[in-house]
Design goal:
Order of helices and strands: EHHEHEHEHHEEH
Radius of gyration: 17 Å
CATH architecture: 3-Layer(aba) Sandwich
Structural class: alpha/beta
Number of domains: 1
Distance between the termini: 17 Å
Shape: globular
Number of strands: 6
Helix content: 40-55%
Number of helices: 7
Bound molecules: 3-methylbut-3-enyl trihydrogen diphosphate, magnesium ion
Strand order of the largest sheet: 3-4-2-1-5-6
CATH topology: Undecaprenyl pyrophosphate synthetase
CATH superfamily: Decaprenyl diphosphate synthase-like
């Protein structure tokens, strides 16, 4: 029976969720943040899931209208400040992955504060992918390897990535079947699940049913 140690989710469909209700796209991001809490709490209470990696903002999302990007930055800061106690209550360690240097100083400080506050939490690690893109991550990893004069092999490359743990199960909500520059190396042998459900509507029941399907998948890793 498979149980994912590392679950990764591309949280897509917030804008469409809002638009289909005649609301501004940003309302979908607000609702999506509530889904993040529900899913994180579920994973924290799941005895075998160790890491939950959530795609929140890609290196390509800067192309969006300035107002939407600004809203997302404000939402993130507000949400992190508020979420700190929720992480602690659920024994969740928060970690940001991606190139954080492009964010404002106050936002970077808030991210660091929540990371430090939850450093010793052991129930689950939630890594939030912020200004994350796999290609950018790989380039930063190679730079790090060169700076450290690391041997060039698969183990060292994985170790130099923002997240070294391989993804077992990758879910994308919102109906599109693509990776959008997410976890390209870590998901080399991940099982991929695509659901039409828009992220604000994604529920712990649907996650549970995906986990049940995943339990029975035969993962061969190239063997027989
Ligand atoms: C995902 O939802 C959240 C982010 C990329 C920040 P979208 O904003 O991409 O929603 P859709 O795909 O346009 O509906
Ligand atoms: C992927 O969603 C990025 C996140 C969920 C953060 P996008 O909405 O940006 O992806 P594309 O543009 O549809 O590929
Ligand atoms: Mg989208």
């Amino acid at each position: 029976m498979n149980i994912p140690r590392h679950l990764a989710i591309i949280m897509d469909g917030n804008g469409r969720w809002a638009q289909s209700r005649g609301l501004a796209r940003v309302k979908g991001h607000e609702r999506g943040a509530e889904t993040v809490r529900d899913i994180t709490t579920f994973c924290a209470n799941h005895s075998r899931i160790e890491r939950l990696t959530l795609y929140a903002f890609s290196t390509e999302n800067w192309k969006r209208p300035k107002l939407e990007v600004e809203f997302l930055m404000k939402l993130l800061e507000r949400w992190l400040k508020n979420e700190r106690d929720v992480y602690l209550a659920n024994d969740v360690r928060f970690e940001a992955i991606g190139d954080l240097s492009r964010f404002s100083d106050p936002l970077q400080r808030t991210i660091r504060e929540v990371e430090e506050a939850t450093l010793t939490c052991k129930g689950l690690t939630q890594s939030l992918a912020l200004n994350y893109g796999s290609r950018d991550e790989i380039v930063r990893a190679i730079r790090r390897m060169i700076a450290q004069a690391d041997p060039i092999d698969e183990a060292h490359l994985l170790r130099a990535l923002d997240v070294s743990m391989e993804v077992d199960l990758l879910i994308r909500t919102g109906g599109d079947q693509r990776l959008s520059n997410f976890m390209l190396l870590q998901a080399a042998y991940a099982e991929l699940f695509f659901t039409p459900t828009l992220w604000p509507d994604f529920s712990t029941d649907e996650l549970q049913s995906i986990l049940t399907t995943f339990e029975r998948v035969e993962r061969r890793f190239g063997g027989l």
